[in-house]
Design goal:
Length: 448
Amino acid sequence: MSEELDLVWQRMRDELRASSSEAAFETWLAPLVPVARRDSRLILSAPSQARRWLEERYLGLISSAAAHAVGAPVTVELVDEGAESMPDTELDGAEADARAPAGRLNPRYTFDGFVISAGNRLAHASALAVAEQPAQAYNPLFLHGPPGLGKTHLLHAIGHYVRAYALELRVAYTTVETFTGEFVAAARHGDFTRFHARFRDVDVLLVDDVQFLAHRAGTMEAFFHTFNALYEAGAQLVLTSDRPPGELGELEERLQERFKCGLVAPVEHPDLTARMTILRKRVCLDAVDGIGDEVLGEVAQMVPHSVRSLEGALIRLVAYTSLIGDKPTPELVRKVLGGLASTANGPSPRHSVRIDDIKHATAEAFDLTSEALDASDRRARVAFARQVAMYLTRELTEETLPAIGAAFGGRRHPTVAHACRRVEQAVIERPEARTVVDNLKARLAGSG
């Protein structure tokens, strides 16, 4: 990115942030990336799913900010992120500016939004050190721990930090599922140009869930060579897994050894103080009224598991009070979340929505049958409905990913993990998807 374009964009960001709500800015405007400028034209890339929404709702605001930043009228054009080609004209720096590969980063997942506790202090400190000085401190950085404790949050936080404070560095975030899909597509077409451009022409590579490399010989080979190429080029690698490298017996030993050669940091369950802080932050972020510390304390006591379970419990409580109209009280918490309470010997079985209830409600919302969610139908509407149902099962029950996969037509747990990520991203990028998911959560909250 040229210095002039960088300056224009920084001015625009400042004005856009000041003239929109924080939620709107982080969700819709922050992901924009300047591509090129020539005379009175400014080209910005936007996530493809959000471009039309931005053109309809925010183009006037963006154009105004651009005009103020440049000091003259400007025509703003939005193009899809990763578009194959740019408009057919010579643009200032268009070819020279290889913009950062854009794995989608969740705007909520920043260092400011991460709650530090005894169980994640090392992971947080090492992630921040890596973000501040990529490839200078710990390389690779390997974060491990059970699902839902904040590993992905830290990955995204590193990406946000580097993109904000080291604009010259190229950052890519990916999951092993995405890496595998792109590798298979490249192998099928016999052309690895785009694959290598995405995963090797970077300065920081963030990879989620490396345990899913297991039993994929071709993908493991490709990942091994990608790892080596980046490491030797001085790029930073950050990896996450549900287990430390030494327990990933399904992976080739040479990969395990590569993962061990940097810093390995655990991410463990949050203590009570951390759980309270997490709940307070979520209440603040979602602008939820009427829920005080007494109520949050009851939730924190009853849900000692993952951060994801904790936030899911709060969502369930808020949805229930919104539907029924009851005032949040500790007694209501015990009623709504009763099955989540733990005993001295550990958590009791979760009294939650049944998977059949989730299937029925989701199928009805998409005008399908429950059986369609178990079938192999790959039409977009059916596939997304199935993904939503899997996501809701993970959010509203304590079922494991393999168990969820088995309940949806015998699918493998990596498929479930991929489905959940797709829905999480859709909720961020598509207002209509968020509405569907929120309505289903609210409906199911009263059925547990």
